[in-house]
Amino acid sequence: xxxxxxxxxxxxxxxxxxxxxxxxxxxxxxxxxxxxxxxxxxxxxxxxxxxxxxxxxxxxxxxxxxxxxxxxxxxxxxxxxxxxxxxxxxxxxxxxxxxxxxxxxxxxxxxxxxxxxxxxxxxxxxxxxxxxxxxxxxxxxxxxxxxxxxxxxxxxxxxxxxxxxxxxxxxxxxxxxxxxxxxxxxxxxxxxxxxxxxxxxxxxxxxxxxxxxxxxxxxxxxxxxxxxxxxxxxxxxxxxxxxxxxxxxxxxxxxxxxxxxxxxxxxxxxxxxxxxxxxxxxxxxxxxxxxxxxx
Length: 295
What we know:
39% of the residues lie in helices and 25% in strands. By secondary structure, the chain is α+β, with helices and mostly antiparallel strands. Helix 1 packs across helix 2.
């Protein structure tokens, strides 16, 4: 009897220890499974959002390239250029305006600055404004400087435009391309302007779609994650947020990954909130799509 009691004395702690280890292992396994499931959900969501945005942006680019091609065919006179811009301006209702910014004195009769801009006025109709002048020296604009160096189409950095030339003030992004004449000389930099509000609206619609997508939300995750989707500039600042909020990330490694068009998952503080960030580059642009999941 004494031996049996001694045996029980030793077996009981061992049983408790084994049970504790089993509980720990089960907890670890469940946590791992939960994290893996979350990763699968948000990686899938990130890919869907990036693909939808890429298609939206590419559709805009194709319409703009039709306008640029029309300008390239009509470089014989200022009037022909204006006619080409106006002829194609209604191709895409999301574009605020199209322009052709010519190299200085390309048309001697027009002087140093010649930038016809066919854009939306106070109504839905497109109007023509000649925006080039000493006061608005477009040759100093970042998109023009980049266009002189480029050989292909590109997206400009977002910029704030404010003027009194019948053009709506606000944050713009420009899809632009250099145009060369028959002699191979740079003739102008053509561009299509979109507002930041347009991109925010596209993102808002896509976020609403993925939040309500049954396949993307079929995972049995405990609790409810607080997340949002944002388009990031390559300096770690937000370009578009569905609610119009400003997001800033100061992590140097994360910013380097954005600049190098990498994709991945990072544990970061976003606006002071510990978060897990899933990010991937947006094709043909210098932006990245990021899903920020607050911990």
